[in-house]
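We read letters as residues; the integers encode the fold. Take this protein.
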Amino acid sequence: MTTHADEFQVLSDTLYHWSVYDPAVKCEIGCAALKLVSGWAVIDPVPLAETAWKELLALAPLRAILLTNGNHVRDTVALRLRHQVPVVTAPETRRDI
């Protein structure tokens, strides 16, 4: 997937969302970012424009990536390498990836 979301939606003080259309699966795919006391936990990340990431990271640091499914790896590797954060999964998901 080479497309990225240009912006995110603020759903509440602690919950943000963005999505992109993925032609490979012919649907809109999305992710959420939860702002915790220690920073952001991004759930099933999809690519987000660098300017939007800078806005999020100005609010809090990225602390973890949560994968709910082996099919949702998407932007995980790039984020993990760039921000040196852990990837959290269920044991079944870990086997899928």
Summary: The longest strand covers residues 27-35. The two ends are 17 Å apart (CA to CA). The beta strands are 9-10, 15-22, 27-35, 40-43, 62-67, 87-89. The mean pLDDT is 88.
